[in-house]
Predict the 3D structure of the following.
Amino acid sequence: MPKIKSEEVGAFFQHYPKVAAVLTVSARDKRNAMAVAWHSTISFKPPLYGVAVAPKRFTYQLLLESKEFGINFMPFEAAELVASVGGSGGKEIEKFIKFGIAEEKPLKTSVPILQDAYVAYECKLVDNKTYGDHVWVVGEIVAVHCIDGVLTSKGTLDLNRVSPTLYLGAEFYITVDRKSVRLLDRDTYGRR
Ligand SMILES: Cc1cc2nc3c(=O)[nH]c(=O)nc-3n(C[C@H](O)[C@H](O)[C@H](O)COP(=O)(O)O)c2cc1C
């Protein structure tokens, strides 16, 4: 199939979908949450996680103050919560109260852990570097919260137990089709 080539990059969302998570912070008796789709594992040893946050976000101010953040992975049933915290500003409203967000106690930090999250990471800030209009925030994962039974014996998400929330762009959310799972081991497929 021929591809349309262009030097007009614009807002490049062609690489979506991406997992939509909720970034949580707490500082000065204030807590806040925002949706994030631009996030990634960076290193296993030490366990580092990165997220691109626009410096104008209220969340970023609290993150800089506390030097801690949480990354909460949400089931598709909680996609509306992701859209709510991604569509509102914490400077104006207390999102936890307005959207009735239930939290659980963290283990090693003071970041809010969302009760609806199937997995959540507590991170301590190790670096933050500005790239263009976002800051690449790097944290060391110091605690992991995981609902019992959501992972298979291989450590992958058990899609019979949980459907992750993915962001398609343009305010559309999707989840995965568990019938599409294929096991393609890299030894076999790397050598064929
Ligand atoms: C699905 C989704 C993903 C988003 N991903 C990011 C992101 O990765 N980085 C970012 O800075 N903003 C992202 N946003 C925007 C923020 O979540 C949004 O601006 C939010 O209102 C910021 O809240 P705050 O001002 O209380 O921090 C995303 C929004 C949505 C809906």
